[in-house]
Amino acid sequence: MNQEIYGRLYDVVKDNMEAAGEEFSYGKETFLCDAGAHPQEIDVSRYLGLPNPAFMQAVHVAALKRLPEERIVTFWEQRYGESREQFQEEVLRSIAGSSVVAINHVRLLNNPYFKQKKGIRYYGMGLLYGLTDKSCLREFGKKLPMPLQKIIRKVFL
Fold this sequence. Notes:
Blueprint lengths: L1 H18 L8 H7 L6 E3 L8 H13 L5 H8 L6 H13 L2 H6 L2 E3 L10 H12 L2 H9 L3 H11 L1
Helix pairs in contact: 2-3, 3-5
């Protein structure tokens, strides 16, 4: 029932965008797979029936909360001809190894291809990824006293 409602909402928005001369960047499958889902839990079984291009886009949006960049689409386009199972496993392994997935503690549930690593060690790795994010370090550095900032600039820059 919910998927039907989300599907109708998608159709209305897409029609309105087309009437305005715009293109809706999400595929309907991508939108429906992610609609109503928990932001940190991806039920992979919901995506397994999708064709390779829709699968890549839908999993990317679910895990990273954005559409794939053009270079990523170009990379995966070369592999659309692979068998569905092989392609899906490669995409899921790529997503599972992403620093964004580690930082946000995103879990791949009901994954038939492999078990996602978990535990305190991998939770800590996600925290470490978050700490080494350059923008966060830059903001932290700006809060330090000016003499300490100068020392850090001499050492690292």
